[in-house]
Design brief:
Distance between the termini: 35 Å
CATH architecture of one domain: 3-Layer(aba) Sandwich
Strand order of the largest sheet: 10-22-21-20-11-18-19
Largest sheet: 7 strands, mixed
CATH class of one domain: Alpha Beta
Helix content: 40-55%
CATH superfamily of one domain: HAD superfamily/HAD-like
Number of strands: 22
Structural class: alpha+beta
CATH topology of one domain: Rossmann fold
């Protein structure tokens, strides 16, 4: 029944294409054209079955590129894919009604129609696959239905066809439901956008936006693709994309992401990505690939299901042959057909895929992009988390946190002198100092001494700003030591040869970092800080966050080696955002990139990416994955238990064909419904607000 076991049935693929699965983004290479709405697509398994899909554009890509009108998954009562099952069920009930009334001929006719309607959904595909030498659960059901008819059990054959087709249709709907969050991501891209051309502004479809185009985004409009603000100042609501409820203030030079909602002022944005290949379409592509590779439990289910299909056929043949040996072939052929159905691995084949797809789709809604099914399962095994400091635990935005003027110098004067000299400097600490000063007038005669500091003239004063090794701060040495012990970078200021004071600059801890570490510890997960920063600063930040295991002054290779040692002891996740984290991310059991601001190398090396910055997504994602693994395990146990229990009951005639079919398909529906539970929002996910008038239901709330 499931394509995860033995490959997709063609009839199923046709229904999937008709039922508007996820549209694949495309740029003509690995990434296809993106539709701003919904478009049909084949599944990942289809790509392997249909040679064209893996090497050329998929039906989804072609539909998106050609601008075909996509379809939305309809309510179940209007879903045409359920029509064959509905017809089969109605005629089956009518047939049994006539049979109970003693009208045998009308009853058989109605049951025959029910059989044909149900069999239409799986028999053609099973025969086509058999012609290519491939076995599947559909073949078992086809043989069982034909055998039942030959033995005169038309009603039982019709019941089998009805229940099998219904369970398959319900599985399709479960898969589609799991993908709806991804379709909603694409819906965040507007249909059209205003761009600046040589002859003025013009409106074009969003998918036609090219890199370096200048977009005009008015108040309340959505940003069509990633870019950089070149004129205008406004606030952006990014809650639907990143999950952050506080609007982000932007001005020229600030980066913006596709799907953000502009505030009250018009912005001009230079596109840094095309309309077909931006952060939103890349997220959809990554999640769409999630079920192309399978995790440990999925492989376990496959290892059981694949040999089970031919084993069931052999067992049924042996049971039938036994009938000829004992002289009662009719009885034992009938039992062989019942055994065929009882031991078919329908529920086992879908036990993992429905859970994985539901869970990964749900994770994408709250800002966690999990690239593969294997990653999802490994995420549920994590017992230790290593976190980078800069940009992960901290904001990666140095700020002045303490000012210590010398006697006779005011705080304002100290900051003003330092800011005047640093006004034209490109040093990372310069922006922090100039931002802290209430007023800044650039100094004259500015000279930089690389690695030490900077000198300039502020009015009639000669001012030097630099590190404490360059300037003599003997009288403030104790204060400098205390500031350094608290994780600050100490900047000394000298005025006309006299120490004017100290300025403490620090990359502040994210406000949710301490809570995140506490949540991880509550889950029994150990935390480690891995950083290239100096030992004193690293330990100060780690102490505030509640991390006791600190490994500082690590080069990229040192980080990777440390992660390798941790992985050898227990499953370990690495959380980072920079290029220097890429080796460690690739080495970890699961690498997690802080995706919204992370370096491309880090995101590419990671198995999981966060679209937002809230660290509380880490414990939420880990808890979500562990719950998904529990659901997978329960599904596999239930599926195997059904086979183990039904096989002897069928073999010894305790249950007939109708009873076995009913139990089997009810169990399959239970497995599907249990798997869909993995789509529930996990506890601890940070809440995001949204304005209903401006945007659809937020994806990452």
């Amino acid at each position: 029944m499931s394509e995860e076991c033995c490959g997709p049935d063609e009839s199923r693929k046709a229904r999937t294409l008709q039922r508007a699965a996820l549209a694949r983004p495309s740029t003509g290479g690995e990434t296809g054209g993106v539709s701003t709405g919904y478009a049909p697509a084949s599944t990942a398994a289809d790509a392997h079955d249909e040679g064209d899909a893996c090497c050329g554009p998929s039906p989804a890509q072609r539909a998106a590129e050609e601008g075909e009108a996509p379809e939305v998954r309809p309510p179940w009562w209007r879903d045409k894919a359920l029509l064959p099952s509905v017809i089969s069920g109605v005629f089956l009930v009518a047939g049994y009604s006539f049979e109970w009334s003693g009208l045998a001929v009308p009853a058989t006719s109605l049951q025959g129609v029910a059989l044909l309607a149900g069999a239409y959904t799986f028999v053609p595909g099973a025969i086509r696959r058999l012609s290519r030498g491939r076995l599947g659960v559909g073949l078992l059901m086809t043989i069982a239905a034909i055998g039942a008819v030959l033995l005169g059990h038309v009603g039982e054959a019709a019941a089998l066809a009805f229940l099998f087709s219904l369970a398959e249709a319900l599985e399709d709907r479960a898969m589609d439901r799991a993908k709806e969050g991804l379709r909603a991501l694409l819906a965040l891209i507007p249909d059209s956008v205003r761009v600046v051309r040589s002859h003025g502004e013009t409106t074009i479809p969003a998918v036609e936006v090219r890199e370096r185009d200048v977009l005009v985004v008015g108040a309340g409009e959505r940003v069509a693709t990633d870019g950089v603000v070149i004129s205008g100042s406004s606030s952006l609501d990014t809650s639907a994309v990143t999950g952050e409820s506080i609007p982000v203030e932007v001005e020229p030079g600030d980066a913006v992401v596709a799907g953000s909602v502009n505030g009250s002022a018009t912005l001009r944005i230079e596109a840094t990505a095309g309309g077909r290949d931006n952060s939103l379409t890349q997220i959809v592509t990554l999640v769409e690939q999630a079920h192309a590779r399978k995790g440990e439990r999925a492989r376990l289910a496959d290892r059981i299901a694949r040999p089970l299909v031919p084993a069931v056929l052999i067992a049924a043949a042996l049971v039938a042959a036994f009938g000829f040996v004992v002289g009662d072939p009719e009885l034992w052929i009938e039992r062989a057909l019942v055994v065929l159905v009882a031991a078919s691995p329908c529920a086992l084949a879908i036990a993992v895929p429905v859970t994985v797809i539901s869970a990964i789709g749900a994770a994408s809604k709250f800002g966690v992009v999990i690239k593969t099914g294997e990653t999802f399962e490994q995420l549920g095994t994590i017992r230790a988390v290593a976190l980078d400091k800069t940009g992960t635990l901290t904001r990666n935005a140095p700020t002045v946190v303490e000012v210590h003027p010398a006697p006779g110098v005011t705080r304002e004067d100290l900051l003003e002198w330092a800011a005047a000299v640093e006004a034209t400097s490109s040093h990372p600490l310069a922006a922090a100092i100039t931002g802290a000063a209430s007023r800044t007038t650039p100094a004259s005669e500015v000279v930089e001494d690389a690695g030490r500091g900077i000198t300039g003239r502020v009015g009639t004063h000669k001012v030097r700003v630099g590190n404490v090794r360059w300037l003599n701060i003997a009288e403030l040495a104790d204060a400098a030591g205390n500031m350094a012990a608290r994780g600050m970078t100490v900047v000394a200021v000298e005025n006309d040869g006299h120490t004017a004071g100290l300025i403490g600059v620090r990359d502040e801890l994210r406000p949710e970092a301490e809570e995140t570490v506490r949540m991880l510890h509550a889950q029994g997960i150990a935390t480690v800080m891995l950083t290239g920063d100096n030992e004193r600063t690293a330990r100060a930040i780690a102490q505030e966050a509640g991390i006791t295991d600190v490994r500082a002054e690590k080069l990229p290779k040192d980080k990777a080696d440390a992660i390798a040692a941790m992985v050898a002891a227990r499953p370990t996740a690495m959380i980072g955002d920079g290029i220097n984290d890429a080796p460690a991310l690739a080495t970890a059991t699961v690498g997690v990139a802080m995706g919204a601001k992370g370096a491309a190398a880090a995101i590419e090396s990671a198995d999981v990416a966060f679209t937002g910055h809230d660290l509380r997504l880490i414990p939420a994602a880990l808890a979500h994955a562990r719950r998904g693994r529990r659901i997978m395990t329960a599904n596999i146990v239930l599926a195997l238990a059904i086979i183990i229990v039904l096989f002897p009951l069928a073999l010894f005639g305790v249950l007939g064909l109708a009873g076995v079919v009913l139990v089997h398909e009810v169990a399959e529906v239970i497995v599907i419904l249990n798997g869909v539970r993995a789509a529930r929002r996990p506890r601890g996910v940070p809440q995001a607000s949204a304005t209903p008038a401006q945007q659809p239901e937020p994806l990452l709330t």
